[in-house]
Design a protein that fits this description.
This protein has 136 residues and is an alpha+beta fold. The chain has three helices and three strands. The relative contact order is 0.18.
């Protein structure tokens, strides 16, 4: 995966989201590349995920403080960004609550419940987690 470019990594992320949606009978969101100051964002009340490839990273394991890798708890690659934004989409369409106790963190970016959910959904890149039990 180290030799993949950002466009390849985005395609991989889109393929994972598409597979997840098909397995779980969920509408597939529209994914657009957009120039924004953010790496990505989800427009609430819409069906659209936006990603700015310029602000995403390629997989990196050195130096240690800059690790960013698909499936790792710090993932600022296009796969991690688009699956995180997909988490916001799922959070909304599944009607999950917007508030709750945070407790222990899964990753280093969880300032609120919505971000915690989105960070957790990034792990759909791990195939055993593709199916949501008892969703439909």
């Amino acid at each position: 995966m180290n030799d993949m470019n950002k466009q390849d990594l985005l395609k991989n992320g889109i393929d994972l989201i598409t597979e997840f949606c098909k397995i779980n009978n969920i509408n597939i969101p529209t994914i657009k590349t957009s120039k924004t100051r953010y790496s990505g964002y989800y427009t609430y009340g819409s069906n659209t995920l936006h990603i700015n490839l310029d602000n995403c990273r390629i997989p990196q394991i050195n130096p240690v403080r800059s690790w960013s890798f698909p499936g790792y708890f710090v993932d600022r690659t296009p796969i991690g960004v688009i699956t995180h934004e997909f988490g916001h989409y799922l959070h909304e369409i599944l009607g999950f609550p917007k508030m709750g106790k945070l407790g222990l963190h899964i990753t280093n970016y969880e300032p609120n419940y919505e971000e915690r959910f989105a960070e957790t959904i990034k792990f759909i890149t791990v195939p055993p987690f593709m199916k949501i039990p008892n969703l439909h």
